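haha ok so turns out i had the wrong file open the whole time. this is the CORRECT one, sorry everyone. sequence first:
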Amino acid sequence: MSSSLILFLNFVIILSAICFTETAVLIFGALGFLVVLMSNFSSPGFKVFSGLLLLMTTLILYLYCLRISRLIRRDNVELENMEGEKNILAVELQHLRLENSTLKQKLQRYTALKDLTETLSSTLSLDTAVPLITDETFKIIDKSCACPLYLVDNEKQLLYLAGAKVQDTHYEIKAKRGDMFDNWVFKQRTQLMVEDTKKDFRFNANGVKDEDLRGVRSLISVPLISANKALGILRLDNTSCEAYYADDLRLLDIISHLAAVAIQNAMFYQRTKELAITDGLTGLFVHRYFQERFDQEIFRAFRTDSQFAFLMLDIDNFKGYNDKYGHIAGDIILKQIAKLISSSVNLGDIVARYGGEEFSILLVDTTKPEALKTAERIRKRIEEERFLLRREVTRVSISGGIALFPDDEREKEGLIRRADLALYKAKDEGKNRICTS
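then structure:
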């Protein structure tokens, strides 16, 4: 019976070590020792042996549990540290993913910029460059509802809408001359970012109206500047507030530099073409280009079974004006008459400076009576015009000859000869008149 009790007490202490903690081992060990002390054993020596056995079991199990607890606490600390490192690595991974996504976006944008640069460098037409710039800008900074591009009217020094890319085909940009934001960028010649068009302190005083904003709540805009000359405005609109960031504005500024160079080159190329086919003094077509258009018009008339009139005009007594007032006065007369002729013909008619004081006009899709009416209108306007030469007001007259294709002649040389003969006839009959062949 005593042996069974000792075994039971040892089992309880071992079980407390397994199920509980070192404190439980001490408690159950102390209780077991008390039980042994209070028990009546047949042999005092067995009682002492049993007590020492319990104490030894308790001590060994206590030290074992204490070590296990320390190991568990150490493992928990290490586990917590690992969890912390795991969280840090997760945050770093998320940051790296975000950076990777940002770098991919930047790579895509700069690749698109490279392609845009290559395309613009080979574009010499303003009609091609403008839609290319708006379309590519819209794609590169892909967060806008509209991308208008305004250019500068050099004569009026005002903006005009040259082109636009819009997300919705029903969206219409009504400010054809630019709104307050565009004019601010044009005058200040600096970039602009508006996070909220209804709250920006720079424009609130101007009384921004909803109908003027067209739903635009944020925008970025940059001037197009080349060789210190403002060429226009490139802008992006969004219907949400705070849609754009500083990186978007910087990217738009880079695009604007590329666009400004392309637009300037296109303007130079257009100007070069105009200089090649237009007279530097009068702005009318030169004789060589007029001959090319003459051939084209004959071909078109044959193909469409239509007709046109060839009108030759010559300033009466032009040498006398040069002799009396000087060659500068002669240039004034030529420029003024060229403007009167250009403003008196229909759109599509071709006007050229044929010689020194001679002008030629192709009046397309015109009958001889209609051509005569147009020629008389030109003659009368010039006759009524006042020319100020060396502070002296004088008058100038012209004479003209008309030939009709194909009624009068079916070949260019013959048509020119018939009109020339009609012109000489007008001169012989007293000048300041129009004759037909």
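Residues 44-121 form the longest helix (78 residues).
again sry for the mixup
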